[in-house]
Amino acid sequence: MSKKFLTAREVAERWAVGHHTVLEWIRRGRLPATRLVGTYRIRPEDVEAMEAAGDCARVAPKGESA
After folding, report:
1. CA-CA distances (angstroms) from residue 11 to 1, 3, 14, 40?
2. How many domains are there within the chain?
3. How far apart are CA 56 and CA 15, in angstroms?
4. 17 within domain boundaries
5. Does 65 have pLDDT greater than 70?
6. Domain presence at residue 62
7. Could you list the residue range(s) of the whole structural domain that residue 28 is in?
8. Is 16 inside a domain boundary?
């Protein structure tokens, strides 16, 4: 069973922030992530937890409402 992980770019797009912002949150320990083959992978559960806590700049992607 494989589990879907998100990249920093995918999280950045979801939250409408720059991917460097997401990387900085990871480096500071604000967003848990695993380093895999030179890139960070973020569990969807951790993204959802940060959203639930109101601890991100979540903006709905085009065509969706927040």
Report:
1. 23, 16, 5, 11
2. 1
3. 7
4. yes
5. no
6. no
7. 6-52
8. yes
pLDDT, one tens digit per residue, over 31-59 is: 999 998 889 999 999 999 998 888 776 54
Q: Which residue reads 């903006």 in tokens?
A: 59
At 5 the pLDDT is 94
Nearest to 22 by CA among 36, 3, 41, 5: 41
| CATH number reported for the structural domain that contains residue 27 in this entry | 1.10.1660.10
How do residues 2-38 score in pLDDT, each as one tens digit? 569 999 999 999 999 999 999 999 999 999 999 988 8
Contact (Cβ atoms closer than 8 angstroms) between residue 25 and residue 51: no
H or E, element range at 27: helix 19-27
- In this structure, are residues 31 and 24 in contact, taking their beta carbons and an 8 Å threshold? no
Residue 65 falls inside a structural domain: no
For 23, the token pair is 């990387």
